[in-house]
Amino acid sequence: MSKPQLLIDTDPGVDDALAILMAYAHADIAGLSIAAGNVGLGHTVRNARTLVDLAGAATPVFAGCSTPLVRAADEDAAFVHGQDGFGDIGFAEPAAALADEPAALALLRLTHERPGELTLVALGPLTNLALALRLDPGLPGRVARLVVMGGAVTGHGNTGKVPAEFNVGFDPEAAHVVFEAFPAFDLVDWEATLRHAFDDAEFDRWLAAGDRRAAFFGKIMGAARRYNAKHDRRGVIAADALAMAVALDPSIVTRRETRAVAVELDGRLTRGATVVDWSARLGWPARANIVLEVDQIRFAAMVRRALGVPG
Ligand code: BDR
Ligand code: CA
């Protein structure tokens, strides 16, 4: 079977790193386009280049927007991922080059060069993707699929604006543009992520049995693990890894609902919330395939392979 062909927009970030290691283990990556989000763009670009080095790959890395499209973000996620987004380990300057092309233009060019071939996987705020869509609304017609990690479809969320999830809450206008533009996309939300956390002890066994990728990931995840333990978030929560599993193999999804999903752009408490029209009252087109459950055993197997765990 031929490998999945991916184009990944990301803001690495600890769980982005696991997702990208999964992509290297199971797919070909046409490019990494980088957003600001978990931490500032300088760090997310550098972290992406560190991952390219770790993979021993030559994947082009494209820097994107350093701010959201319209309003400055209220918060980043350095308090979870570390000030540098990779657990403040102090890695050396990476060797992998930064391409001399803005992320939004690279998304357009690569999809023109390979129409219908690439699955676009969005693991961060949707700023680059929205900008690309405003430049060229034909983009959705040139990608095989879009898989988005974002939203909180039952309103729990993980940000200061209670019902909002981080990626959508960081740049709500961008998410609005993307959700309106794509006729269909897979949405892996924060609450699905919580249902698919890995058991801590089991994850530790994988880290001990894996290769240098496991050693790397074990280091960078320390800060996020400590944060989650203090805030009653159980197990190893890997939002972007779950979205990557769906991108790599859509047959892993065991329960989904297709609904209209809109983004709240105002609201004193709710800016950035994803509003799901669960009972189809508004008559809007149902574009989002909301992933509710995946086969956890297959998801775990994908993660183990990405960490170099034998067998
Ligand atoms: C999302 O926000 C980021 O902190 C993670 O990398 C993930 O993409 C989860 O809400
Ligand atoms: Ca991310």
UniProtKB/TrEMBL annotation:
<keyword id="KW-0378">Hydrolase</keyword>
<dbReference type="GO" id="GO:0016799">
    <property type="term" value="F:hydrolase activity, hydrolyzing N-glycosyl compounds"/>
</dbReference>
<protein>
    <submittedName>
        <fullName>Inosine-uridine nucleoside N-ribohydrolase</fullName>
    </submittedName>
</protein>
<feature type="domain" description="Inosine/uridine-preferring nucleoside hydrolase">
    <location>
        <begin position="6"/>
        <end position="300"/>
    </location>
</feature>
<dbReference type="InterPro" id="IPR036452">
    <property type="entry name" value="Ribo_hydro-like"/>
</dbReference>
<dbReference type="InterPro" id="IPR052775">
    <property type="entry name" value="IUN_hydrolase"/>
</dbReference>
<dbReference type="Pfam" id="PF01156">
    <property type="entry name" value="IU_nuc_hydro"/>
</dbReference>
<dbReference type="InterPro" id="IPR001910">
    <property type="entry name" value="Inosine/uridine_hydrolase_dom"/>
</dbReference>
